[in-house]
Amino acid sequence: MGNITREKRDSFIKQIIDETRLRGRLTVRDACQMLGMNRDAVQRYFNIAENSGEVYRHGNLGLFPDYRATIKFDLQRYTSKKGAK
């Protein structure tokens, strides 16, 4: 990826945060496609975005706009798995 300016890095992080709020959930795969970056770079930006406190990371499931969104996501996953049996 090479050296990037602080402004460019901050721009990527802002895009990640904004897109997370817009979609309700942003995965590393989605961010890689959106930003045209490799997985390692996106994961570094996810960590920075999470540390900002503006979004929440929920395991390997991606970033969420708030903690309630993670609970809602887990409930949907649980009920869909339970209903599949």
UniProtKB/TrEMBL annotation:
Highest taxon, organism lineage: Bacteria
InterPro entries for the chain: DUF977 (IPR010382)
The protein's name in its UniProt record: Bacterial protein of uncharacterized function (DUF977)
